[in-house]
Amino acid sequence: MSNLVERVRRFGRRRDDGATAVEYGLLIALIAIVMAVGALVLGNALSTRLNDAGTCVQDANSTDDCNP
């Protein structure tokens, strides 16, 4: 009988192992999203800067003043 009571007690206990794994998964997904957005924004800004620099080098003989 005490074995049955012990089984019922263990069954009623809360286990947090699964919740921890889910939380880590959510954190990893959030970090990946932030990194992807950051790379996209920085990549576009860098591309614009490099295109502007290339245009200035290509048009070096023009009277247009290229500011860095």
The largest sheet is:
none
The class by helix and strand makeup works out as mainly alpha
Order of SSEs: HH
Helix content: over 70%
Total strand count, please?
Answer: 0
Would you identify the regions where 5 or more consecutive residues have pLDDT less than 50? Answer: none
Determine the number of helices (DSSP H or I, runs of at least 4 residues): 2
Mass-distribution shape: rod-shaped
How much is the average pLDDT?
A: 81
Rg for CA atoms = 29 Å
- Strand share of the residues? under 5%
N-to-C terminal Cα separation, in Å?
83 Å
Describe the structure.
With 68 residues, this protein is an all-alpha fold. It has a domain at 17-58. The chain contains two helices and no strands. It is rod-shaped, with a radius of gyration of 29 Å. It starts with a helix and ends in a 10-residue tail after the last helix.
Annotation keywords:
rod-shaped, 68 residues, mainly alpha
Task: Give a quick summary of the entry.
The protein has about 70 residues and is mainly alpha-helical. The protein has helices at about 1-10, 15-60.
List the helices and strands and how they pair.
Elements: H1 2-12, H2 17-58
